[in-house]
Amino acid sequence: MEKISTNKGLLDRFLNAIEKAGNKLPDPAVLFLGLMLLTWLFSTLLAPIDFGEFDPRTGEKLFIQNLLTGERLADFLSRMISIFINFPPLGVVLLAMLGVGVAEYSGYINAGLKYLLSFTPQALLTPILILVAIVSHTAADAGYVLVIPLGGIIFYAAGRHPLAGIAATFAGVSGGFSANFIPSAIDPLLQSFTQSAAQIIDPSITLNPLNNIIFTGISSIVVIGVGWYLTDKIIEPRLNRTNPVDKDLSDIPKMEDLKPIEKRAFKIASSVMLLGLIGLFFWASPVDSSLRSENGEITSFAAPLMRSIVPLIFLIFWIPGIIFGFISTSYKSSTDVIASMSKSMGSMAHYIVMAFFCALFIDAFAQSNIGAMTALKGAAFLQSLQLPSQVTVVGIIFLSAFVNLLVGSASAKWALISPVFVPMLMQLGISPDLTQAAYRIGDSVSNIITPLLPYFPLVVIFCQKYVKKTGIGTLVSIMLPYSIYLLVIWTAFLLIYWSLGIPLGLQSTYEYPAM
C-alpha cells in the first residue's frame, strides 16, 4: 500500500508540474497569435537556407517561404476573412452545436441520459463511452463536437468526475483515431496516398481501401482497454484529488426522475429520430442514390452523404429536440427554440475567438513549409540509420507521432511523408499495408496532447463548463498518460500482431514482394 501511495504521489507531482507549467501559458487565442508571429519570424530566418529536400508531392525543391515579404503580407491580409470563414472546424462546431443546443436545453438529451444510465452498469460506463467515441470516427469529426461533451454530461449525471468522462471520450475520438471496426472515409483516403507512393517502386501495385480494417478493428479493443484502465484507475482518482468540480453548476441539467409527460415526449421524439434514420438508410441504399459518389461509393469524401454528416447531425438533434420541448412543455413557443440556439452559440463565443487566431496560425504554418521540411528531414534521418525492419517500423510510429504535434491533418501528413516512407520500406521488404498501419498509430496517439489540434481549444471549453480554472496545461496533464500508454502499448501490439501473421486487412500483406 505504501508503494502504491508513493507511486500516486510521484505521478501527481509530475502531472501537476505539467499542468502548472501549461496553465502559465497565455490564453489559447493569444498563444496561437504568438505562434503565428514566431512562424513569420522563423520563415524569414530560414528562407535563405537550401535544405536540399524535394517536395514529393510536386517533385520540386522545397524551400521555407518567407512570410514577411510585402507580397506575402498583402496576400495574407486579402485572405484573412476567407482563412477564418473557411476554417474547417468552425462550421462543423457551430452548426452541430445549434442542433445539440436545442436538444440539450429542451431536456431531450437529459432524458436520453437518464434512460442510458438506467440500464448501463456503472462498472461498464467507461468502456461503453470509449466504444461510442471510437465508432464516431465513421462520422468524420462529429465525435469532437458531439461525443466528447456528452462524456462529461454522462459522468456528471452518474456522480463521477465529468472531466474524466471528457478525457475518456477524447482518448477514444482522437487518441484512438485509427482504431475502428467500421469503415470510414479516412480508409480510402490514406490508401490512395499509400498506393501512389508504392507505385514509385512498383507501378502495377494496387491496394485494397480496407487494407488495414482488421488491424484497426482489433485495435479498438486495445484502445478501450487502455482507456478504461487509465480513466478509472489513474485519471479520475487524480482529478478528484486535484481538480474538484466547481460548486456553481446551475447551467448543467439536473438528473431528477423523468415525469410521465417527459417519458411520453422522449418516446415520440426518439421515434421521429428513428424514422428519420431509417428513411436516410433507404435513401442511401441504392447504388444510384443521390447520396453516393458518381462511382457508387458511399464512404468516400466525394459522396454527398459524407459531406452532409454535420448537417444531418444538426437535424437529428434539432427536430427531436423541438418535438420533445413542446410535448414536455419546456418550450412554450418558437421564441424558446431560438433562445436555446442563441444560448448554445453564446457558450461558443470564446471558441470562435480562439478559432480565428488558430486558423491564421495553421494557415501561416502551412504556407511557410516549416512543418513539411521537419517531416522530410525526420524521414531522411530515419532512412539514414538503416535500422532492422522492426526497429524501423517503431521509428516510423514515433516520428509520425512527433510530426503530428506540428501538422494536424492525417491526410496532409501522409501525402507528404508517404512517398518517403512507403518506397523506403518496400526496399527493406516491408509492405505498404504495414507501413500505413504503423503511420496510423503514430498519427493517433499524439493528437490528444497537442494544442495545435484544431479541436483542442474546444475540448478546453468543454472542461471549463465543470472546472472553470481548466487551461491548456490542465488538459495536457490529463491526456498525457493516455498518449504515453497508447504509444507504447499500441506499438507493442502491432509488433506482436505482425509476429503472429494476422492479416492487417483485405488483400493485405506484410512483406514486399508479397509471399
TrEMBL record:
The keyword Endoplasmic reticulum does not apply. It comes from the Bacteria. This is AbgT transporter. GO terms for molecular function: secondary active p-aminobenzoyl-glutamate transmembrane transporter activity. The chain crosses the membrane at residues 29-49, 81-103, 115-136, 142-159, 166-186, 213-231, 265-285, 305-327, 348-367, 387-407, 414-432, 444-463, 475-500. It holds the Pfam family ABG_transport. One of its GO terms (biological process) is p-aminobenzoyl-glutamate transmembrane transport. PANTHER family: ABGT FAMILY TRANSPORTER, P-AMINOBENZOYL GLUTAMATE TRANSPORTER. It comes from Cyclobacterium amurskyense. Keywords: Membrane, Transmembrane, Transmembrane helix.
